[in-house]
Amino acid sequence: MRTALARDSRLLVPVGTCEQHGPHLPLGCDTFIVERLADDLSAAFGILRAPTIAYGVNTATKRPYPGNATVRRKTLHRWMNDLLGSWEQCGVAAFIILTAHGHDPHQEALSTLRTRQARVFTVDVFALDFTGYLEDPSGPVHGGELDTSLMLYLAPQVVRMDLAKDFELSERQVARFRRRAAGSVPAHSPGSVGRPSLASAEKGARLYKMIHDRIATRVLGAVAA
């Protein structure tokens, strides 16, 4: 680790969640995505990556879902501050936090992390502009077209498209859902919102390349060899 940090003092830190995304996707959907990103970016640019943090602050739900496991905003914030402090003492000068979960309390916990001197960059991969990549780019992101496409590309063996169910929201519900702290997954939904029926592995491949390349150029400031 000392040798690697002497060459590049940045550290990739993937932070996932353990929450339902409908019956067709695994509980760790968000974790799969950022873990693969961290692996690929680490290999392409020779940057160290931390072990994956598999739990975060889950989106609110109107009913319980088996397997869901969440932490509070303050818990995630304190946990991450402790970890970053330890890694900073080892020589890390910049942290790139990767997450695929836009829930406000989750984002707040990660975007307000503090270190003694190291820089902290929090990247929500789902905050990118997907216009031109999705048939429904304005739709809510929770088990819909975007993350289902990514999972069909990254880990098709854990996707059950035979169980996928579209669950469209009204304009008012979409507006409320997008205010992540106020919105929640409706009780009568399958645990997901949006249109997973629009998803495909080919679409996921294009989406993943765009996400990877945007992070590489805008955050890491480099082009892979």
What's the structural blueprint in terms of helices and strands?
Elements: H1 2-7, E1 10-15, H2 29-45, E2 48-49, H3 73-89, E3 94-99, H4 104-111, E4 119-124, H5 145-154, H6 171-178, H7 201-219
Parallel strand pairs: 1-2, 1-3, 3-4
Compose a concise summary of this entry.
By secondary structure, the chain is α/β, with parallel strands linked by helices. It contains seven helices and four strands; from the N terminus they run H-E-H-E-H-E-H-E-H-H-H.
Please give a handful of descriptors for the protein shown.
alpha/beta; Rossmann fold; 225 residues; single chain
Notes on the protein architecture:
With about 220 residues, the chain is of the alpha/beta class. It has one domain (about 1-220): Creatininase (Rossmann fold, 3-Layer(aba) Sandwich). About 40% of the residues lie in helices and about 10% in strands. The protein is built from 7 helices and 4 strands. It has helices at about 1-5, 30-45, 75-90, 105-110, 145-155, 170-180, 200-220, and strands at about 10-15, 50, 95-100, 120-125. Strands 2-1-3-4 form a 4-stranded parallel beta sheet, with helices on both faces. Strand 3, helix 4 (about 105-110) and strand 4 (about 120-125) form a beta-alpha-beta unit.
